[in-house]
Each structure stands twice: as C-alpha cells, then as structure tokens.
User: What shape does this take?
Amino acid sequence: MAQVRMPQLGETVTEGTVGRWLKKPGDQVAKYEPLLEVETDKVASEIPSPFGGTLTSISVEEGQTVPVGAVVCEIAESGVAAPSKTATPAASAEAPSRAPVQTAAPLGFSGATSRTGDGNGVRYSPAVRKLAREHQIDLSGVSGTGRGGRVTANDVSAALKGLPSAPAVARSSPGAPTSAATPVPRQAHAPVEAHAGDEDTVIRLSQMRKTIAERMLQAVSTIPHAWCMMEADVTELSRWRDREKAAFKAREGVNLTYLPIVVQAVCRAIKENPIVNSAWGGDHIIQRKHINVGIAIDVEEGLIVPVVRDADRLSLAGLAQSIAELVEKARRRRLTMAELADGTITVDNTGALGNIASVPIINPPQAAIITMEAVVKRPWVVNDAIAIRSIMNLCLCLDHRVLDGAVASRFLTAVKKGLENYANA
Assistant: This one.
C-alpha cells in the first residue's frame, strides 16, 4: 500500500486544501491520471497520481486544509495485492514494506507546525497575518469562525471594531462524514447542506473564494480607493480591427480582440507616467522597473489574475498570444505560481460582459487597476456636428496613498489618446 501526500505547489506554500476528489475509493487510477484538485491561496491545480492502481482510502475530506506532506490517500499499486482487513498483525508484519510515495513534497518535511503559523501550531492565511501586523492584533485572542475554528480576515476586522466575530454558518459537526468519496459538481462553491425547509442552501467556500474574500477585504480595509473615468472614441480603432482581424487570426493563430490593444496602450501610458507602476511600501513608495500586467480572468470558481511579464516589450501579436495562453491555462486550471506573481498593474475587461462603467477593487500591492468597458455606439459631437461613434469608457481605481487625481487623469488621458490614435500609429 502506497501513500500519496499533499504536494507543495510553490516555494512559499506550506499547506493546501482538497478542493475536489476526482476519484473515489475502489476506483482504478492510471499513472499520471488526475486524482484530486488541490487549492492554495494563489492557485488551484489537478494533482496526478504518481502511479497506477486502485484508490483504497481517502484521508482528507473535500474542503479540509492540511500541511504539505500530509497523507491524503492510499493506493494499492497495480500488481500489488492490498492487505486483507482480517490479516493478523504477524501476517501484516511479514508483508514487504513499501515507502510512502510523496508527490512533489519537500525533502525533510516533518509534518509539524506550518511556517504560516504563530509558533504554537496554529496556521493563519497570508491576508490574516498581514492585517494582524498592520493593526497590531494578537491573533491568539481572536475567535475564529472559519472551518475548524480558523481565523478569517472578517474575524480580524471584527476584532478591530471591537465586535464579536460573526457566527459561522452551518458548519458540519466534528467527525461527521462528508462527500470525500463522491466528487461534487465542478462549481465555485459546493452545496453542503440545505435547511429552512429546503428553501436555502449553505454553500461551502472554495479556497479560491476564501482567498478572494480575504484579499478584497484587505484591499478595501487598507487602501484608500479613488476612482475616475474617461470616454475614448475608438471608432477608427474599431474599423481598423474589423479590417485586420481575419488576417491577424490566420497569421497569428489567435483572435484580435480589444484586450491586447488596451494592454499595449496602458504600457505606453505607464512609460509616460511611471509612478502609476508602483506599490505602497508603508513609509515609502516602490516604483517598479518592470511592467507586468495582470489580466483579470473570469473562471468557474471566481476571478483569477495571471500576469503578462514585461508586457511593454511585446508586440501586439505577442500580447494577444500571451493573453490567450493565460486565459486557456486559467480555465483549464493549469496556471503556475510564477504566472500569478509580481503583477504591477491590472487590466480588467469588464466590457466583455456588457458593462459600461465599473469601480474595480485594487489588487494589492499594486497601486492601480483599469477597466475597459463595452464598446457602445453613441451620438457624439464631432466638429460641432452630431455623429454616431464607437465609445469605450476607461475606468481607473487608484491607491490615493501613491497616486493623486492629477497623475491618474494624465495616465488615463494617455491611454485614451493611445486608443483613439492607434489606427494611425
């Protein structure tokens, strides 16, 4: 019998959450076939089986968080008989011993306290620890309402306000069986219990949803947001795109959308206003050298922001191909930790959903996020005459500790001009 352990999905990752089992006890598993989905605070990945055989037992339930290296299941390898449950201890002792098989776990892992803890064996998420440091909160005195009593960002915020922590909702009783043996539908949140006459459904939060909640709370709690919007007349750009998109697709293999064009305009605007590409450092501002553009992507489980590194160095075709690859990998759950790190500004294509104006939340530690809204035909004044033009709203949220309104307006103006003059560039 061989053991499969919680893998390490990144250098700083010390624990993972079983999001969904793709196999149940008794199922045959081929070598390298996806066995389970593991979620961390940054990425969700399908974990392949390191060998072929029969899944005999599952040790970690869906939604349960365990340290890297913890045993998550056992598999009887093909051609190796599973030990009989009625075997005597002596007979079991005579069976050949097998070393546990560990998928990508670090050497020397002891299975003891996670580095994300407080030194007493208690683990806290990065967002919780950050809030505690910023507001000098002793986490040992904060009551946790998360799964298994874990402290959440909401609990820290309640402690800041001097309020009792919000009650947890419909948590399973300790030791109660869950659906670990039966995969749940692939969705953002898995329903775990119905109540109130089957009118309401309590939904278990995925690790991605928890992370989104914690980071958004962190963002609005610690960043003074300011917002502005400009209208861009993209009529000529729209006509140019209509003329070029068929040849572009044939030549480059990807669609010519507005997104890489806007990313290119954002990069050029940053070159004119480099302070926008900055982060708040507490008692200083960090102006980033590289322009790494985060692309907000809507996936089944929530929102994820992979990064196009050195986006200013890529051609339009290079940007289109990079973005298309990130979108595909995000929706297939194939993103790596490196592809989610080091973003310096985020572009959100809210217009793809038909929005015409948005107030986005900044992705810390970045200082700005810009949305590109839907291209809408509207009456527009051109040379004192009314014409029908294609208009795109550009919305910017900024960290007012780093940027002021004048800088933001100059930056948005540069993006606007870049789009309006793109076809003539």
Notes: The CA atoms of residues 223 and 309 lie 24 Å apart. The chain is about 25% helix and 25% strand. The mean pLDDT is 80. The longest strand covers residues 385-399.
